[in-house]
Structure formats: C-alpha cells, structure tokens
Amino acid sequence: xxxxxxxxxxxxxxxxxxxxxxxxxxxxxxxxxxxxxxxxxxxxxxxxxxxxxxxxxxxxxxxxxxxxxxxxxxxxxxxxxxxxxxxxxxxxxxxxxxxxxxxxxxxxxxxxxxxxxxxxxxxxxxxxxxxxxxxxxxxxxxxxxxxxxxxxxxxxxxxxxxxxxxxxxxxxxxxxxxxxxxxxxxxxxxxxxxxxxxxxxxxxxxxxxxxxxxxxxxxxxxxxxxxxxxxxxxxxxxxxxxxxxxxxxxxxxxxxxxxxxxxxxxxxxxxxxxxxxxxxxxxxxxxxxxxxxxxxxxxxxxxxxxxxxxxxxxxxxxxxxxxxxxxxxxxxxxxxxxxxxxxxxxxxxxxxxxxxxxxxxxxxxxxxxxxxxxxxxxxxxxxxxxxxxxxxxxxxxxxxxxxxxxxxxxxxxxxxxxxxxxxxxxxxxxxxxxxxxxxxxxxxxxxxxxxxxxxxxxxxxxxxxxxxxxxxxxxxxxxxxxxxxxxxxxxxxxxxxxxxxxxxxxxxxxxxxxxxxxxxxxxxxxxxxxxxxxxxxxxxxxxxxxxxxxxxxxxxxxxxxxxxxxxxxxxxxxxxxxxxxxxxxxxxxxxxxxxxxxxxxxxxxxxxxxxxxxxxxxxxxxxxxxxxxxxxxxxxxxxxxxxxxxxxxxxxxxxxxxxxxxxxxxxxxxxxxxxxxxxxxxxxxxxxxxxxxxxxxxxxxxxxxxxxxxxxxxxxxxxxxxxxxxxxxxxxxxxxxxxxxxxxxxxxxxxxxxxxxxxxxxxxxxxxxxxxxxxxxxxxx
Length: 781
Description:
By secondary structure, the protein is α+β, with helices and mostly antiparallel strands. It has three domains: 31-125 and 173-266, 2-Layer Sandwich (Aldehyde Oxidoreductase, domain 4); 273-452 and 611-780, Aldehyde oxidase/xanthine dehydrogenase, molybdopterin binding domain (Aldehyde Oxidoreductase, domain 4, 2-Layer Sandwich), CATH 3.30.365.10; 458-605, 2-Layer Sandwich (Aldehyde Oxidoreductase, domain 4). Helices cover 30% and strands 25% of the residues. A hairpin with a 6-residue loop joins strand 4 and strand 5 (84-85). It is globular. It starts with 12 loop residues before the first helix and ends with a helix. The model has no long low-confidence stretch (mean pLDDT 96).
C-alpha cells in the first residue's frame, strides 16, 4: 500500500474549523483548580530590592504569591547553559520578566493581586542594541569560526570587491494559542502537566530539577498546540513552572494562560542580526573570497542562542560554493527577553546576507542577478561521493552536497516563470514610469535537515495493534498544526497494509515515550515516523511468521515462508496461495489467542550526522531540502507601498507523502517569511518596552499582502531513498523562499540611482523602502 494514495486530510482538520479541537485553555475545569498569573518586572535592568506581597495576599480569593524563596530546587534552568532564573532573587534582566507567581481562585483576584504587589527596583540603564552590547563586551557563549580555503589569497586575487553591513530584525512568533500549562497533583508528590510545548522531555526535566523531584515523578502531556514556530521549544518552561510550583505549594490543580499582551512582551523572538561582510569576485560574478562576521541579539539569557547561531554559520553559503571563506560569529547579551528558536532557526538570517551579496554583485557588474546566482550555485550531483569529486561540491564545513537538484530547479523556474521576459519588461517600466518601480528576483534555498547537536537526532515510538485490527501509535512528536500525526499514521498504515482510518496517533506523553527530542529542526516526521515504522515492522514480522504457519496448514506441500506474506488493503495473503486471504483484524485476533506479541517499541537514530563545532568541520545534516522562488513586486515611489504581484515556487521534497499537508506547510512558511522580510517590525522604546505589542502595531501578513498570483509545485523524485518514505522535510525551508521578495525589492530600488547599491535593511517595510528611495535619490542628485 502506498502511504501517499489517497492522502488523508489533517487528522484535526474538522476540529480546527469547528472549534471542537481542545487546547490547554479548553480542557475541562478540575475540582479546586487555581488561576495562575505572574508579576512582571517594571523595568529592563536593575537590582531587585523589594517584593512586597502583603497587600496582595489580603485580597479576597488570593491563595498564594510565590517568589524565588519558595522555589524548592534549582533556581536556574536552561537547555544549553543553565543561566536563566525561574524567579530572580536579586537582578532584573528584562522588562516583563516574571518576578513572582500568583495563585488565585479567580482571574479577577489574580489581576487585582498583580496590581497590588509592590516592587522596588534600583534601576540601571539597559543595553538593547547589538552595537552597544558589543562595545561593552557583553556576550553569551564563545566566539565560533568556520573556515575553508585561503581567504586572504582569494581576496588578493579578486578582480572586484564588496564590503558592507547587513541588518535583519527579529520576528514575533504570533502563534494563536498563547503560552499555557495546566498542572495537577498525583500520588507520592507526583505532578502531571499538560503543556503547550514542542519539547515535553525538556518540560519534564526542568520541572523535576526546579521543583526538587525526580524525573519519574513528572509526566508531561501534549495533545496539540495552536501554533508554535519554535516559540514553544524552550519558552514553554516558564508557564509550566508557574503552574507546577502552584501545585507544589498548594496541592491543588493550577492553570496559567498568558494574555496576548504578556506573551508578546515577555517572551523571546527571532534573533536580530548584524553581519559585516566582505566579498571578492571575478568578472563573471563568481565569488573567490568571502568573509562574514555575524552578531546576534540573544537577549538576557542563553536559551538556544548559541545553537541558533551555529546553524546560521552552517547556512552562510545558502546554495553557493564558497572556495575561500571565513565565517565568524558570536551571540551578544542585551536586556531584552531571551530570544529563541523560530522557524528556520538562524538559517534565514544568514541566507539573507548571501542573497543580499548576490544582488550587490549583480548591481556592481551590471549583470542580471540570476546569472550571478547560477555562476555560484552548487553543481548537480546525483550520486554519492567519488574518489575524485569535482570542484564545487563541498560546503565551508566540509560536507558534500549530494543528490542536488538545484540546477534543475533553477532552470525549470527560469523557464516556467518566463523570468527573462518579465525582468526585461520590469527594466523598461522602471526607465519610463515616474511613480512606480517593478522588481524581480529568483532566489534558491538549500536548507540542512537534522539537529546540529548530534544526540538530538533520535526518536522512539510505541505501536499497539488490537484484536479488531486497529492500531494506536504514540511518539515523542508534538502536533502544532503541521500534520505530523497524520503523516505518521499514513506511514504506519502503509507498513501494516491497512486503512489510515484504522490508525490513531495518541496524545504525546513522557510516560509512553521517554527522553525524546523536541519537535523541531523540520525533523519531526523523519525521526518519529521512522521509529514508528520500525515498531510496526517488528509487529508485521511476527504476524508474517504466524500467517505463514496458518497458510501452510492448508497447503502442506509448500513450506511456510514469512517473506512471501503480503499485507494489502486490510487483507493478509501469500501469493503462492491466492485463494487464501485473511482479514487483518481476524489475523490479529487469532494471533493474540496464540500469544503472539502485538505491541512493539521502535527506535531510530539518524545515521552519519556529526559535527565538530570546535574545528568547524563535519556532516551536521542528513540531507538538504532545496527549492527556489521567483518574486515580482511593485513599489509606489511616492509612498514606499509594496505590492507582491506574483510568486512562482518550486521545491524538492522527494516523494511527497501528503500533498495537502505539504502544500499547506509550504505556503504557510512562505507567507510567514514574507511577513519577516517586508512587514513585521519589532520596535522597542528606550527603556526596553516593546512598542509593537499588538496586532494594531505589529503587522503580520493579511489577505491584501498576499501575492496576486501564486504558483507552487514540487519536483517529485525518489533520490532521498535513505529517508522514511523517500520524502524530505518541509517545515522550515519554505520560509526562506520569501527572500526572493526582499531581493526583488532591492532589485527595484537599484533603478532609482543606476549603478548605486541600495542600502536596504530587513524587513523592507513601506517606511524602510521610502527612506531607501530618498537616500538613493540624494545619490542621484
């Protein structure tokens, strides 16, 4: 049975559109349940001198207010470095930092208590910008470097040179379900928590350490999230701790659900970056030397910043061969909420820089930017490494780019989008139209799939087959709308030859699947789907052996042959005995009566991935997902208003497992990327307050921001045979397709003062475009 045919809809689709799918806030009220809130810090930086809770405790309905003195275990937590306090005892490090946890009988009482707690802080001047943090030497983690070739020799030999600084701002996750957790007590000081998290094992570990428990006393459950995009990989820990601390102190159930204001103001976001670059290239635009010096704004604490920066370094090349390159990077510490994972995990910030470089080389040489990209792109490579690999196959960190369809993708898109005709038309319009500018760009994507931390590339799954032929699967994957449960159900159904409707993927729980990795790095289906298929295969092998014996009883002239047993369309048979067919359900029932084990645990560890971060060498990725996008934009020269006229995108996802889900992910990621590169501007005040803290001031893409024409296609192939179902990950790569929109804006602006390079930051908001036009016009004058 082909797991792709027919592709089922998302398993929660009906619940999503009818409102019947429960999230943490929707779960039934528990007897004695308390409402949890927190007291946010009133400033971004200073010494905490007083937290006076006496007046707040006197409010009717307030059960307790807890500070750092009430934390029974570790005071600090963290995934990479344990530097973040649950509740600070002395220092305040960002505006909105939780200082105390409030437990109350009602929301009204909790809000009154929040206002009544008196906080006295000896304020200090916060550090908010990357430039100021670096000038003061404020860093998180060590400096990292990746080098290949001989940079200085390449620089000396370059016929042309470019130098500059590229700025990209952060991005708010804007998941529809805010951070939330519901916790309740069990026996023997056990605590269970239903968390809106991508990382149930991390929640289990942090709660155990901070609440002075052992991990077997904590159970974390995840049914679904109303969006996450990386924002609930680590930052779900604080709300889970708030609810669980309340359980620890009161022995009563407790629930916390952040308001949208608190969520936006107190949680971290995509990292802003500042990257200095210098690039040397020849007359054809081929890069011969490239140096990148990246600085990211990590916020107040480490969170995942160093890992995110590492992925940035690994994607500084994007889709281009860089023979002589140096990539140096470091995380800066500021007084903003600790920034965190976001779709792309540092890849977008680095890929934006190299795409900016491609546009600038084209402008400097007076060439079409696509020709520059084609001259630098990794070559087609459809086989494993040979003894003498040709030039241009290797990344700066030494991994060979194999099974590479990028040249074919670029060629197909160039033709199907009529790129050459349209860019010529854009040039003509820009030469004549006084009020508008048209820009076009075709940019590629090469995104590495795997966790760059080796031990995270593992998963386990539990598969139980029942005597009516139905199946339950549990894995460590968490469902946040991306359809991982549906795809895992398809894979298991295909392995057992049954209908996907007969497979249920159950709630994620640390008591069923232990020591799991977060659902992140686009690897949720790869890891957990493979583990589930392996478990199902073990059960199928037992059933094959049992069925072979059954068939042999009726045909003693043939030897039992488990290898010949087929599982198809809910029926089990041996083609050597075509008339004997057993329904899958009947076989399961008979097998159980003969004491055949119908349950199995599967485990999978991604083979071959390893990276020496100190040396900057290795193979951190199992494979690459590639694609490209052509964007056409129209700009009003008088207002800076931007309109996306058309997008044409092509992705290599190998064998597409579920067309509806993959299309949804690809379009959703692309639109989210458009928000990052054009509209979503984080603005902070001098005191660190987020001024763009609501949908009225923070503009995610609306229906009028979408392209007038959108063409999306997949390059179907089975080259990725090592991966489950021969598919490729789709979660993060489509976001970077939106860099074509930003590049198209830069292309359009290059006509304002021909020969001059537009200094365009990211995002290219209407205001930024108008300012850039003004700067370019002054150069022309």
